[in-house]
Amino acid sequence: MQDAVKTCNNLITINTRSDRSVFDLSSFRAKRQVTSLPVMDIVYADDVCLMADSLESLQAYIDSLHQSCRKFGLVISTSKTQVLKQAPRGSIGDPSNISLEGNALVEVTDFKYLGSRLRNDNTLASEVPARIASVAAAFGKLKTRVWNSHDIKLQTKILVYQAIVLPTLLYAAETWCCYRANIKQLDIFHLKCLRSILRIKWQDRVPNTEVLRRVGLPGIEALIIKHQLRWSGHVVRMSECRLPKAVFYSELSCGKRKQGGQYLRYKDVLKRNLATCNIPTDGWEGLARLRPEWRSTVHISVEAFEEKRLSDLDAKRQVRRTRPKPSYTYTYNSSGQLYCTPCGRIFKAKSGFASHIRAYHYDQLNI
User: Domain C2H2-type: where (predicted)?
Assistant: First the structure.
């Protein structure tokens, strides 16, 4: 790898500085104490991920690596090598046309690397469904012998669930940038599994808060927050020469983010998690350097967050149950079609009409 890098230019570089807060972006504009570090590859065993800031640089990097491998009698597998291009948001970009020994490499929108699905838009649109599919298979294989067994206690079943299902479902969750839709998708599957273990059907009308209290487990959001805060503490305590810490305390040396809504960065997610757990963003790194204190703080803060979340859900459910049921005035046109008087929208079913009135014309309900 070092031999291949010698002949390559225009690689991805980052500016890193770990003597300031990770949220202090102005520190990277200093002329001193900022280190420029090239990030050109990620290597694990025989898996290599090459990175470049342009298609030309990537082609030159692959050619150089191919020549270096031939010196040691190694061959790069063309069938196992794929190209993932991350174009600017809102643009498709030109085809990659990256080749190896005259053979065009396949361009994909996502690929699996070290057990995780990486996408060209840096979202979890492929990772979350893949995690759920993998866990569903493992959960189904244990249904007869574990979940439906009358000889195994509930406490033992929950321990098996924590040892097998949750680690697979939340694999690499420490580095996720989760949106509300991703958390909801994972939480639905999490509660579905717990209801299956408890043999609770939807006809029983048992709320999700009661399901979590029966098994003594938190929701998916609390688990992800705990994983990410714990991992952030590990990164803070790493030595200065470690690549994860250099990337954690860095920003790209070139390029900038456009104004307006942007994709979440890990720093944004971390700041949101700290605020959710009532941990100050200006002093958390000093606390994270003390491993026992940080572990205790994360555990207590996440427990308090989950307890408050469940209490808020219970309060909302109580409000819904005590709210008087509205009565609807159904109006029909000359053709006998049900329609909304304020906006004139036509409906085929009364249920759709009722949902529309509750959503857009709630002030006209007869309560």
Answer: 338-366
